[in-house]
Amino acid sequence: MSENENPSFGLFQKFLSNNRIFKNREVLRHSYRPQILPHRRPQIDAIASILAPALKNETPSNILIYGKTGTGKTASVRYVGAELEKVAASMSTGCKVVHLNCEVIDTQYRVLAQIAKGLEDIDATPSDKARAHIPMTGWPTDQVYTELKNQLEAAGGVLVIVLDEIDKLVKKSGDETLYNLTRINSDLRQSKVSMIGISNDLRFTDFLDPRVLSSLSEEEIVFPPYNAPQLCDILTQRAQMAFMEGGLDEGVIPLCAAFAAQEHGDARRALDLLRVSGELADRENAERVGEKHVRMALEKIETDSMIECISTLPTQSKVVLYSMLLLEEMDKKIFTSGEVTRVYRDVSRIVDIDPLTHRRITDLISELNMLGVINTRVVSKGRYGRTKEMWFDTNTKKIQEVLAKDPRLSEDRLAQVDLNRLRASFR
């Protein structure tokens, strides 16, 4: 052991001693909120101009914000919200912002209770702490709604409610929550409520009652995808804080930006690529992050996301996917939905699940295609109609490994599949 090594660090000594790559990798994570958001000034100004009446104790219009993942929607809203609260505090104006993630808070009860909790956290004083608060479960919903109104009236001022991923709430629980919230101002005298809905799904409004939609979308703002030069600016800003001086090769940032621009201009993907590239370089004790590390990071991220996607699939989808793997094992590199159905029926019998109809299997195949697990195309068979062909675009070994972790699809159980008989049935 050298004199510079600390024996108490043991196993981690070699990982702590190398500090040539990162200065602060946390600034590359999605949770980091920069002080400056490049290329989003028009959207930020638009949100600020709509919310500005709150500083005069007037009700701002409700806003619907659309845009693909990684286009800066949430970061921009949080930035404007923080600035609004800062100015309101300096003016002694009662103006508050509560931010909810509807991927987690996806029922009317949870939404109302979480808004109330947000109010408590903002306005809490020692005497307030003793006041009864809305539990996260257990009350009738109308009681929760009444108590929330009471808390709003007690707080006074303007409350801006941000519903991030609002489409998840609507798809899970319908539009009753939004209906109640968009009409809550008619029941209030001392306070006012404004709402901001953020969504990646431009079509979720199809699920809304027209009355809810007209109230919710008084203003609409669209966040366009970033292009490659804009992503370069974003990555350059973060890289200056994240990496040691001289820690990046010149081509790293443009390459990360180019890959992410191909994926709908997703800044999150660009940041992930840059961070993982740095981590891979760090682990191999490289002096600098190079383009080879970016290409390795791209492959790793795609593999990791594929594993996560497949491991969380429902059992029926896994059985359909496994049936496709068997077809590939039988040297059928391109196969049809009809062939998948034939193999699926054998496999479903072995794993003891109720077989689905051909139509439902086709639906599951379409979902696998949307997730990027397989590729599909519809081909014409002339007078025999059209059929769907599919194939794997990636190495299937990883897919097999993930599926094998499901007890129903273990190697022992699936050893009962008679591949020779199946091959013969396709001749």
Give a structural overview:
The protein has about 425 residues and is an alpha/beta fold. About 50% of the residues lie in helices and about 10% in strands. The protein has 3 domains: about 40-225, 3-Layer(aba) Sandwich (Rossmann fold), CATH 3.40.50; about 225-310, Helicase, Ruva Protein, domain 3, CATH 1.10.8; about 315-425, Arc Repressor Mutant, subunit A, CATH 1.10.10. The chain has helices at about 15, 40-50, 75-90, 110-125, 125-130, 140-155, 165-175, 175-180, 210-215, 230-240, 250-260, 265-285, 290-310, 315-330, 335-350, 360-370, 395-405, 410-415, 420-425, and strands spanning about 65, 95-100, 155-165, 190-200, 220-225, 335, 375-380, 385-390.
Low-confidence parts lasting 5 or more residues at pLDDT below 50? 124-131
> What value does the average pLDDT take?
86
In angstroms, what separates the terminal alpha carbons? 66 Å
Strand order of the largest sheet: 2-3-4-1-5
* Secondary structure: helix percent: 40-55%
Can you say what the CATH homologous superfamily of the largest domain is?
P-loop containing nucleotide triphosphate hydrolases
Based on CA inertia axes, which overall geometry fits?
globular
SSE order: HHEHEHHHEHHEHEHHHHHEHHEEHHH
- Helix tally equals 19
Structural class by helix and strand composition: alpha/beta
Q: What is the CATH T-level topology of the largest domain? A: Rossmann fold
- Largest sheet data: 5 strands, parallel
Number of strands: 8
Number of domains: 3
Hey, roughly how much beta strand do the residues contain?
5-15%
CATH architecture of the largest domain: 3-Layer(aba) Sandwich
- Can you identify the CATH class of the largest domain? Alpha Beta
Instruction: State Rg.
Output: 27 Å
